[in-house]
C-alpha cells in the first residue's frame, strides 16, 4: 500500500465570514487525500493545504460565494460560527459526475476534535470512507487476502467482520454488495438500456432489409444491365454496401444533431447529467464504428440478395428467389413485432409495479409532515421551540431524532434479549435515537404498549421495537421485557407496526427506537392541518430564527423525500416507455412500407377482384389479413418471453404485483390495433382505386 486516506461522509454545516453565513457540504480528510487524487489547485498547494488542524480547503464556487473576487487564502472563517479555520487553498469545483460532492475540506484531526466519542468507537465504526492507493503492479486480490481478518486480530468479538478493497473506478456502476461479494448495481440498468438500444437498432436494420428487398422489382433490371456490361458480383455487393454506409452516416449526423437538441430535456426528465464528450477520440471512433457496423448488418442481406440474380432472368424482371424473399420479410416483420410487444408488456408491468410501490401504505402519516436539520442551539432548546410553534398555531407536534424517517440509519449489534440463540448478538439491527412525541408526530401505529411519556423518568432508559424486531427476538409478550442495547439494559415500553424504513422495495427490517437525548440531527414537524402550509412555514421560520439565528431555515417535505427513493424505477419507467414508443414507431414504419409495396404488387389482382364483385371491405380484409397473421404470431412468441423476463425482474422486489392476464390481452389488442391503423391507409387506398386503371397499369 502506498497511501491511505480517511474521508468523512459529506455533512452540511455552517461557515461564517463577517456577516456572511452559508451552509455547505463539508468533509474531513487525511491530508494525503489531496495528493492521492488529482485536484486542481487554483490557490495554494497539496503539500500545505491540510498540514495543520486549523486549515480548510474551499472549492472555487464556495470561495467566490464567501469572498467574492478577493484572494481567500489566509483569511479566517468560523465553522459553526464558533471554531476559527484558516483558508489554506482553493480547488476547482468537483465535476458533476464526480464521486466527491463536497464544497469544503477540513482536516481529519479537526473532525476528531469535534467528535471526541469516535476515538473510543473501536473497530465497529463504519461511517466514513477509506481510500487506499496501491503500489504499482499490486493486485487487489492479494491485498484482500491479507486484510481479510484484520478486525478479528484486534477485536476478536467482531471476528466475523471481514475487510476487503474494491476498485474505485468500478464502484459507481458496481455499487451493490452482499456478504463482501459484488451483486451488481447500476450496471444492470446500463446493460438493460444497452440491450434495448441494440435491439431497436436491429429493428431499424430489419426495416432497411425489408424495404430494400421489397423494392426488388425496380432494382432487378438495373442489376441485370450492370451484370451484362461486365459488373462482377463483388462490384454489385460493394455498390449496395456503399449505399448502406452512406445512409448510415447520414443517419449518424442527424442522430448527433438530435442528441444536442434533446439531451437537456432528457437530463431534466431523468434528473441526471449526461454529456456528449466531444473531445474524446475513442468515443468518436466508437460512434463511427457503430454506424459502420450498422451499415454492414443492414446492407449485407440486400447486397447478397440482389447480386445473386441471373442477368438474363433479371432483365426479364424474374427472380427465382421471390418465394424465399417473401418468407424472409415475413420472418423479419414477426421479429420486429415480437420485440415491440415484449416492450409494451414490460412497460405496463413496470408502470404497475412503480405505482404499487408508490401508493403502498408507508406505515406513517406522510401528509403535512416536514423535516429540518438540527444544530447544537436548536437541539438544546428544542422543547421550547416546539411549544412556541404549537402555541403560535404553526404546528401540531414535533419530535427530534437522530435521522430522517425516510433515511436509512445506523445499525448496532451486541443487542441481547431473553432466550437468545448463540451468534444472534452479532445480528445488526437498525436503530433510531429520539426522545418524546416521535410516535405521535410521525403518525406511527402502536400495536402494543405506548410511546415515551414525559412524566415517566424511567422512559429515559426505554426502547420501542417494530414488529419485525419482535419477530426476530421471538418475544411473546414484548412490553415490559428487558433487553440490552448500546451496552445498557433497556425496557421495552411499546411496539409499533412495521413502516417503510430504508428501501421501499424490501421487507421491513428489525428496528429499535431508543430514547437517546444525544442522538440529534433531524426534527420531524407536523404542520397545522387547519392552516395553509405557506402560512405555517412562515410562522415556523420566524420562531426558528429565535432559537437558531445563525443557521438558515431549511426544510424538506417528507413525501418529496420518499418519492426520491423511487427515482431509479422512475428512470427505468421513463426510458422503458420511450423505448417502447420508439420501437412501435420504427416497426410501424416498416409495416407501412411493406403494406404500400404489397398494395402495388397486387394492383391487378385487386382490379380483377373488384370487377368480379368484391366489396371494398373484402379487399381491405384481403390486404390486411396477411399482416395481421404475422402480428398474431409475434404476440404468441412474445407472450411467454415477456412473462419470463418480467417475472425475473419482479423477483428483485419483496413487495410486488402479480402479472395479470389482462396485461397480455391489452398488449395483444393494442399491437393488432396499431398494425391495423398502420396498414389501413394503404389498404383503403388500394381498395378504393378504379379497377380499370389498375388493369391498364404496367
How does this model look, in words?
By secondary structure, this protein is of the alpha+beta class. It is built from 23 helices and 22 strands. Strands 14, 15, 16, 17, 18, 19 and 20 form a seven-stranded mixed β-sheet that branches. The protein has a six-stranded mixed β-barrel with strand order 2-3-8-5-7-6. Strands 13-21-12-22 form a four-stranded antiparallel β-sheet. A hairpin with a 2-residue loop joins strand 18 (about 480-485) and strand 19.
List the helices and strands and how they pair.
Elements: E1 3-8, E2 11-17, E3 20-29, H1 33-36, E4 41-43, E5 55-59, H2 60-67, E6 76-79, E7 83-91, E8 104-107, H3 108-114, E9 128-133, H4 140-147, H5 150-154, H6 168-171, E10 176-178, E11 181-184, H7 187-214, H8 216-228, H9 233-270, H10 281-307, H11 311-315, H12 322-359, E12 369-373, H13 376-380, H14 382-391, E13 395-401, E14 411-412, E15 429-434, H15 438-442, E16 446-449, E17 462-466, H16 467-473, E18 482-485, E19 488-496, E20 511-515, E21 522-527, H17 533-547, E22 556-557, H18 558-564, H19 567-601, H20 603-611, H21 616-650, H22 661-688, H23 691-696
Parallel strand pairs: 3-8, 5-7, 15-20, 17-19
Antiparallel strand pairs: 1-9, 2-3, 2-6, 4-7, 5-8, 6-7, 10-11, 12-21, 12-22, 13-21, 14-15, 16-19, 17-20, 18-19
Helix pairs in contact: 7-10, 7-12, 7-19, 9-10, 12-19, 12-21, 12-22, 14-17, 19-22, 21-22
Quick description:
The protein has 698 residues and is of the alpha+beta class.
Amino acid at each position: 500500500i502506498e497511501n491511505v486516506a480517511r474521508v468523512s461522509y459529506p455533512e452540511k454545516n455552517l461557515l461564517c465570514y463577517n456577516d456572511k453565513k452559508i451552509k455547505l457540504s463539508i468533509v474531513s480528510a487525511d491530508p494525503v487525500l489531496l495528493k492521492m487524487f488529482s485536484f486542481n489547485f487554483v490557490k495554494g498547494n497539496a503539500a500545505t493545504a491540510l498540514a495543520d488542524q486549523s486549515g480548510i480547503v474551499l472549492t472555487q464556487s464556495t470561495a467566490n460565494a464567501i469572498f467574492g473576487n478577493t484572494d481567500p487564502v489566509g483569511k479566517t472563517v468560523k465553522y459553526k460560527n464558533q471554531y476559527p479555520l484558516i483558508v489554506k487553498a482553493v480547488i476547482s469545483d468537483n465535476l458533476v459526475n464526480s464521486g466527491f460532492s463536497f464544497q469544503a475540506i477540513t482536516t481529519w484531526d479537526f473532525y476528531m476534535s469535534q467528535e471526541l466519542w469516535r476515538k473510543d468507537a473501536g473497530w465497529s465504526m463504519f461511517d466514513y470512507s477509506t481510500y487506499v492507493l496501491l503500489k504499482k503492479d499490486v493486485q487487489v486480490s492479494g491485498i484482500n487476502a491479507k486484510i481479510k481478518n484484520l478486525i478479528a486480530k484486534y477485536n476478536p468479538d467482531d471476528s466475523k467482520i471481514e475487510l476487503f478493497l474494491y476498485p474505485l473506478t468500478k464502484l459507481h456502476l458496481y455499487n451493490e454488495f452482499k456478504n463482501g461479494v459484488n451483486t451488481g448495481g447500476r450496471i444492470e440498468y446500463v446493460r438493460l438500456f444497452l440491450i434495448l438500444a441494440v435491439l431497436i437498432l436491429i429493428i431499424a436494420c430489419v426495416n432497411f432489409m425489408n424495404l430494400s428487398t421489397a423494392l426488388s422489382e425496380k432494382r432487378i433490371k438495373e442489376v441485370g444491365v450492370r451484370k451484362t456490361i461486365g459488373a462482377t458480383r463483388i462490384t454489385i455487393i460493394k455498390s449496395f454496401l456503399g449505399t448502406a454506409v452512406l445512409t448510415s452516416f447520414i443517419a449518424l449526423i442527424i442522430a448527433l444533431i438530435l442528441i444536442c437538441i434533446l439531451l437537456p430535456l432528457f437530463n431534466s426528465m431523468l434528473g441526471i447529467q449526461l454529456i456528449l464528450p466531444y473531445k474524446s477520440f475513442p468515443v468518436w471512433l466508437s460512434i463511427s464504428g457503430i454506424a459502420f457496423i450498422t451499415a454492414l448488418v443492414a446492407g449485407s442481406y440486400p447486397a447478397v440478395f440482389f447480386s445473386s440474380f441471373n442477368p438474363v432472368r433479371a432483365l426479364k424482371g424474374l427472380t427465382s428467389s421471390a418465394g424465399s424473399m417473401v418468407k424472409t420479410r415475413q420472418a423479419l416483420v414477426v421479429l420486429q413485432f415480437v420485440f415491440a410487444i415484449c416492450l409494451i408488456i414490460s412497460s405496463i408491468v413496470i408502470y404497475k409495479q412503480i405505482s404499487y410501490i408508490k401508493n403502498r401504505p408507508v406505515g406513517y402519516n406522510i401528509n403535512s409532515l416536514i423535516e429540518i436539520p438540527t444544530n447544537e442551539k436548536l437541539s438544546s432548546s428544542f422543547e421550547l421551540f416546539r411549544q412556541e410553534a404549537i402555541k403560535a398555531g404553526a404546528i401540531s407536534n414535533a419530535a427530534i431524532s437522530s435521522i430522517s424517517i425516510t433515511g436509512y440509519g445506523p445499525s448496532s449489534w451486541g443487542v441481547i434479549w431473553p432466550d437468545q440463540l448463540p451468534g444472534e448478538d452479532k445480528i445488526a439491527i437498525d436503530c433510531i435515537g429520539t426522545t418524546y412525541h416521535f410516535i405521535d408526530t410521525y403518525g406511527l401505529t402502536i400495536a402494543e404498549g405506548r410511546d415515551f411519556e414525559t412524566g415517566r423518568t424511567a422512559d429515559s432508559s426505554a426502547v420501542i421495537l417494530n414488529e419485525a424486531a419482535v419477530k426476530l427476538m421471538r418475544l411473546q409478550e414484548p412490553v415490559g421485557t428487558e433487553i440490552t442495547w448500546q451496552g445498557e439494559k433497556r425496557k421495552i415500553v411499546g411496539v409499533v407496526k412495521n413502516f417503510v424504513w430504508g428501501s421501499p422495495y424490501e421487507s421491513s427490517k428489525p428496528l429499535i427506537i431508543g430514547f437517546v437525548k444525544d442522538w440529534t440531527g433531524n426534527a420531524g414537524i407536523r404542520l397545522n392541518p387547519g392552516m395553509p402550509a405557506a402560512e405555517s412555514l412562515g410562522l415556523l421560520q420566524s420562531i426558528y430564527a429565535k432559537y437558531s439565528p445563525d443557521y438558515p431555515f431549511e426544510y424538506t417535505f417528507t413525501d418529496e423525500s420518499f418519492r426520491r427513493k423511487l427515482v431509479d424505477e422512475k428512470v427505468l419507467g421513463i426510458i422503458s416507455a420511450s423505448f417502447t414508443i420508439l420501437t412501435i414507431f420504427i416497426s410501424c414504419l416498416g409495416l407501412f412500407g411493406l403494406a404500400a409495396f404489397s398494395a402495388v404488387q397486387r394492383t391487378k389482382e385487386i382490379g380483377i377482384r373488384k370487377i368480379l364483385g368484391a366489396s371494398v371491405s373484402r379487399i381491405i380484409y384481403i390486404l390486411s389479413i396477411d399482416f395481421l397473421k404475422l402480428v398474431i404470431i409475434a404476440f404468441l412468441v412474445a407472450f411467454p418471453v415477456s412473462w419470463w423476463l418480467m417475472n425475473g425482474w419482479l423477483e428483485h422486489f419483496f413487495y410486488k404485483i402479480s402479472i395479470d392476464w389482462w396485461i397480455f390481452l391489452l398488449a395483444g389488442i393494442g399491437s393488432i390495433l396499431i398494425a391495423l391503423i398502420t396498414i389501413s391507409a394503404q389498404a383503403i387506398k388500394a381498395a378504393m382505386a378504379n379497377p380499370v386503371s389498375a388493369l391498364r397499369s404496367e
